[in-house]
Amino acid sequence: VHRVFSKGVASQEGTIHRGDLVLSINESLVHGDVLNVLYQARLYKYTVIVIQKEKDKANNSSRLDISATGRKCVGSGKDVSMEIGTDPNLDMNDVICIELLKTSAGLGFSLDGGKASIAGDRPLLVKRIFKGGAAEQSGNIETGDEILAVSGKSLLGLMHYDAWNIIKSVPEGPVQLLIRKHRTS
Fold it and tell me: What's the CA gap between 100 and 88, in Å, rounded?
């Protein structure tokens, strides 16, 4: 990153700084594709940006350490930074950003797992999708998907109750979720 424009999305959001290394944007690695995505960013509901902080480049120049990366979820005119680099086993290709419209009925799914759950420390997974709810209507969430963050708040390492409270506290309207898709292999 050579320069961050003061009135641009990156400056307003605050995660990307001069000297950071952009590793990919919307899974594009070709320089021309990246520039094209950046120029047309206003046309999309969200953009996924994977960055490596400059301070991490000196320490990890030979290999990419997942802890130095993060996913950016941008939607509905507001930027939501969701750092998920704490899991060394995280496959970034399975992580997606989705937007649901929260109503008085909630987001339309229930959770299972969490830190210190009955089955031990488990990831927070979608246990059930409610018929007619926001999750079912979007068609993007399935039972078994892991919820990593909601509206910029990481759910990694939280107890079920704490994650549930964060989800409940999100106001009605568009809500960005960062999820890891369940693999059926």
Answer: 28
For residue range 102-132, what is the model confidence (pLDDT) as tens digits?
999 999 999 999 988 888 889 999 999 999 9
Q: What single string gives the DSSP state of each residue in 68-88?
A: G--EEEEETTEEEEE--TT-T
DSSP 8-state class, residue 103: B
Q: Which SS3 state, helix, strand or coil, does residue 164 take?
A: helix
In the chain, the domains with their CATH numbers are 9-180 (2.30.42.10)
Here the tokens at position 59 are: 């320490």
Nearby residues of 70 by Cβ (< 8 Å), 6 or more positions away: 15, 50, 51, 81, 82, 83, 84, 85
Name residue 129's beta-bridge partners: 109
Q: Which residues lie below 8 Å from residue 9, measured CB to CB, with a gap of 6+?
A: 41, 74, 79
pTM of this prediction exceeds 0.70: no
